[in-house]
């Protein structure tokens, strides 16, 4: 019995170590704050650890964990009954944990991108983050958000349209395309 528990603990630890940067990035993009992202990832991993036998044997454990994170984030949002995406302090928007494979991290004006993202309503922000930052398919995004593929398409399209309507962001993208 002790050997199986130790093997599960080792498997869970390997999973966390391998996925930590991506989980933190997703949580940060959802919450807009470093400390809130850390709390979200921690509470998600606490829930997942308790059910690791089931989660570890799932077809896609990362998708399972992502769904737990989205649900935990949605619960926090509903409890607060306020727009959770509005940043309290602009200085928090630039403290994301860097992911070495993250092309967005190489953007010249990361702060402008994060401020623009923070202006989106919650469901649009979730759709944009999961589709374009996490590079999930529409089906994977729908599963993570607990909605239909059509809802993902609609929220992503509306979110991208709102991002395109932000003057500073549009100018930054236009300048980047000329270089």
TrEMBL record:
GO biological process, one term: DNA-templated transcription initiation
UniProt entry tagged with the keyword DNA-binding: yes
Annotated InterPro entries: RNA_pol_sigma-70-like, RNA_pol_sigma-70_dom, RNA_pol_sigma-E_actinobac, RNA_pol_sigma70_r2, RNA_pol_sigma70_r4_t2, RNA_pol_sigma_r2, RNA_pol_sigma_r3/r4-like, WH-like_DNA-bd_sf
Keywords: DNA-binding, Sigma factor, Transcription, Transcription regulation
GO molecular function: DNA binding; sigma factor activity
Pfam families per record: Sigma70_r2, Sigma70_r4_2
Segments forming domain RNA polymerase sigma factor 70 region 4 type: 112-163
Domain RNA polymerase sigma-70 region: 21-80
Membrane-crossing segments per the record: none
Keyword Mitochondrion (UniProt): no
Similarity annotation: Belongs to the sigma-70 factor family. ECF subfamily.
PANTHER family named in the record: ECF RNA POLYMERASE SIGMA FACTOR SIGM (PTHR43133:SF50), RNA POLYMERASE ECF-TYPE SIGMA FACTO (PTHR43133)
Descriptive protein name: RNA polymerase subunit sigma-24
Organism: Streptomyces colonosanans
């Amino acid at each position: 019995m002790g050997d199986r528990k130790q093997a599960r603990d080792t498997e869970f630890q390997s999973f966390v170590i391998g996925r930590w940067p991506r989980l933190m990035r997703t949580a940060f993009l959802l919450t807009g704050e470093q400390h809130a992202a850390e709390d979200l990832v921690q509470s998600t991993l606490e829930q997942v650890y308790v059910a690791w036998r089931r989660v570890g044997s799932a077809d896609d454990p990362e998708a399972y964990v992502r769904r737990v994170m989205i649900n935990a984030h949605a619960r926090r949002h509903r409890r607060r009954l306020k727009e959770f995406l509005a940043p309290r302090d602009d200085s928090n928007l630039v403290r994301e944990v860097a992911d070495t494979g993250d092309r967005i991290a190489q953007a010249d004006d990361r702060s402008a991108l994060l401020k623009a993202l923070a202006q989106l309503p919650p469901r649009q922000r979730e759709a944009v983050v999961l589709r374009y930052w996490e590079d999930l398919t529409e089906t994977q995004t729908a599963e993570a958000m607990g909605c239909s593929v059509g809802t993902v398409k609609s929220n992503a399209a509306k979110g991208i349209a709102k991002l395109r309507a932000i003057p500073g962001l549009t100018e930054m993208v236009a300048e980047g395309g000329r270089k």
